[in-house]
Amino acid sequence: MSLIEYLKKRDFKQTTEPRSGKSTEKALSFVVQRHYASHLHYDFRLELDGVLKSWAIPKGPSMDSDDKRLALMVEDHPVAYGDFEGIIPRGNYGAGVVFIWDKGFYRSVAEDRGDDAKTLRSELESGTLEFSLNGKILKGGFTLVKMHNREDNAWLLIKHNDEYAVKSFDPEDFVPEGIKALKNNKNGKATALPAI
Ligand code: MN
């Protein structure tokens, strides 16, 4: 687990994204950031071993267990990235608008939960990661499963059919109009999001 790729892609003189930063919480955190860059997508991040394991989800996560959402694994991010929202300036990697869409905690759903991090780590390596989310929007069981016969980084995020599952789900329904109106970054400067 390393942040070399994350650091390489960014100019910290220009962007206000964090350079590093560890978690102060004992429980494992997750965050979903709506990222309006060259394309709108949602970045899904799970804390593990001192970094945020990260997937870019073009259509965003879903609470409908019939949806299978393509999730492209990207580079690890620092845990402090989970608190970042704002505008990444034009010309920089990921230039655009980052909005914290949901955050909370997660845990393994393995029956024998001796050590969550150990279980999650080995599931991640095996290509089938099962966990339970406790966020404001995302709740209950999910599976991230690595796709075979696809590019190395292609996974699917699937909601379990549990008491939290719903029949249809659009992540944009949970985005304030003021954030939607920002589209992607127009002014080219690193700024915080306007108050909404
Ligand atoms: Mn992104």
Pick out its properties:
196 residues, mainly beta, 9 strands, 10% helix, binds manganese (II) ion
Count of discrete alpha- or pi-helical segments spanning 4 or more residues: 3
Q: For the largest sheet, list the strands in their spatial order.
A: 1-2-3-4-9-8-7-6
Alpha carbon gap, first and last residue: 36 Å
Mean pLDDT comes to: 90
Please tell me the total number of domains: 1
What profile does the largest beta sheet have?
Answer: 8 strands, antiparallel, barrel
Count the beta strands.
9
Please identify the structural class as seen in this structure: mainly beta
- Low-confidence stretches are none
Heteromolecules bound: manganese (II) ion
Helix fraction? 10-25%
**What coarse outline follows from CA principal-axis ratios?**
globular
How large is the share of residues in beta strands? 35-45%
Notes on the structure:
With 196 residues, this protein is mostly beta strands. 10% of the residues lie in helices and 38% in strands. It is built from three helices and nine strands; from the N terminus they run αββββββαβββα. The chain has helices spanning 4-8, 116-126, 177-180, and strands at 28-36, 40-48, 51-57, 68-78, 86-88, 96-108, 128-135, 139-146, 154-159. The chain has an eight-stranded antiparallel β-barrel. β5 (86-88) and β6 form a beta hairpin. The protein binds manganese (II) ion. Manganese (II) ion binds next to β2.
